Amino acid sequence: MAHQAPTKLDINTSYTMNSGYKIPALGYGVYQTPAAECEEVVLHAFKTGYRHVDSARMYRNEQPCADAIRASGLRREDVFFTSKVPPKSMSYEAAKKAIESSFAQTGLDYIDLYLIHAPYGGKEGRCGAWRALAEAQRAGKIRSIGVSNYGVHHLDELEEYIRNSGVGGTLDVGQWEIHPWLPRNDIVEWARRRNVVVEAYCPIVRGERADEPVLQALSKKHRKTWAQVLIRWSLQKGYVPLPKSVTPTRIEQNADVFDFELDEDDMKSLDMPNSYEPCAWDPTTSHE
Ligand SMILES: NC(=O)c1ccc[n+]([C@@H]2O[C@H](COP(=O)([O-])OP(=O)(O)OC[C@H]3O[C@@H](n4cnc5c(N)ncnc54)[C@H](OP(=O)(O)O)[C@@H]3O)[C@@H](O)[C@H]2O)c1
């Protein structure tokens, strides 16, 4: 299966997507990061070693992320930037406008990854938004494309659409809330069979599980924090975790996860295949 974690993970580990481009295995999320402080914290993330920023039109901070990319002094090709089609823009025309607005606001020449944020808008809306992404990918403006919060029924629908419509587009990435209390094994299996990279949002469950005995035990055993244990779990599963923090020490802590390893028993202790406890919204179950 694709995207099992490599034996040796480090901060520069990346995966090759169906598009042929690479995606860094550790991302940095900016949901709820106020635009006014976004450039500064993204710059701190770059200084710490992150090379992958997960934004969205809905987060209203694409521009400061792009400003940080320019101010970082890093080469554009060494930084990976993601945005997303907002749920309100789920049609061909509206998604096309959303993509144009991302370029206008960021001033970037290309965007590494653009996702459909959530499977709303009905079949026509979803397929229309995909067509807009596929067109932008073909034009070379967006390098890789994918979806977020799609359930297996949405994924099947998309796969059939790509197969039968001729619009093209490579399904490169899927982004979902994934952590031990929401493992989403059915979706992960669907993605892995097709080499679709699995991004894990809310990888530290927004701090809501800090006191769980299993995390306390692993934290003590490895002398790492509960947050580091969760990020490491996600990386060892072969996912691309997207921890968010606006706190410099936490930004550093969340990337300091490459000097320890969870062993098989540790991983098993975090295995809760039947748990289904989202901490965020859950559009995967939508039947709109
Ligand atoms: N596609 C989607 O629908 C979707 C939905 C949700 C999220 N996402 C993406 O995934 C990213 C992460 O998800 P999230 O932000 O919802 O949740 P998260 O990363 O699991 O948790 C973020 C929260 O944890 C705190 N935190 C961060 N590091 C910590 C540490 N080491 N110790 C203790 N607390 C810590 C942060 O506080 P401070 O910031 O105050 O430090 C913040 O309140 C988002 O930023 C976004 O890019 C996507």
Automatic annotation (TrEMBL):
It holds the Pfam family Aldo_ket_red. Gene3D superfamilies: NADP-dependent oxidoreductase domain (3.20.20.100). CDD domains: AKR_AKR1-5-like (cd19071). Residues 32-271 form the NADP-dependent oxidoreductase domain. GO terms for molecular function: oxidoreductase activity. The record marks 84 as: Lowers pKa of active site Tyr. Its EC number is 1.1.1.307. The active site is at residue 59. InterPro entries: AKR, Aldo/ket_reductase_CS, NAD(P)_OxRdtase_dom_sf, NADP_OxRdtase_dom. Catalyzes the initial reaction in the xylose utilization pathway by reducing D-xylose into xylitol. Xylose is a major component of hemicelluloses such as xylan. Most fungi utilize D-xylose via three enzymatic reactions, xylose reductase (XR), xylitol dehydrogenase (XDH), and xylulokinase, to form xylulose 5-phosphate, which enters pentose phosphate pathway. It catalyses: xylitol + NADP(+) = D-xylose + NADPH + H(+); xylitol + NAD(+) = D-xylose + NADH + H(+). Substrate binds at residue 117. Keywords: Oxidoreductase. It is an enzyme of class 1 (oxidoreductase). This is D-xylose reductase [NAD(P)H]. Belongs to the aldo/keto reductase family. The lineage of its organism: Eukaryota, Fungi, Dikarya, Ascomycota, Pezizomycotina.
